[in-house]
Amino acid sequence: VKVVNSGGGSVQAGGSLRLSCAASGFTGMMLEGSWYRQGPAKARELVAAINSRGVPTHYADFVAGRFTVSRDARENTLYLQMDNLKPDDTAEYYCIVKIEIGDNISNYVGQGTQVTVSS
Question: Degrees (nearest 5) of the Cα angle 79, 85, 89?
Fold first, then answer.
């Protein structure tokens, strides 16, 4: 199983980015997933989560309606649409997804993608 994060980059405050978390190399199903971030000298934070039915189940308070989590079940891909980005959003973003393969369900972590927001 391979989980690849992409979509990060450098933007100015107020800009947008769409992060992707693509799982491949297996025959099974991506269930629930979550996005986390860790900024410089900061603790890891849960940003957003979505359940196996594609319903968002959590947004951090600091998201404040700016981010949207979604998933494409057919493509086994998780997304995080980030709008109105702020300098405080600068961090390494990565996903954790739960994948079902036969009778086995395990968590897999993406390698992360850097988001840098300048003022």
Answer: 85
52-96 tens-digit pLDDT: 999 999 999 999 899 999 999 999 999 999 999 999 999 999 999
Half-sphere exposure of 34 toward its Cβ, with a 13 Å CA cutoff? 15
Cα angle 16, 76, 56 (rounded to 5 degrees) comes to 55
Please check whether residue 5 is in contact with residue 110, taking contact to mean a CB–CB distance below 8 angstroms: yes
Residue 63: φ, ψ to 5°: -70, -45
DSSP designation for 61: G
Task: Report the SS3 class of residue 35.
Answer: strand
* Per-residue pLDDT at 100 exceeds 90: yes
Burial 69-86 (b: 16+ CB within 10 A, else e): bbbeeeebbbbbebeebe
Instruction: Write out the two tokens for 16.
Output: 């947008």
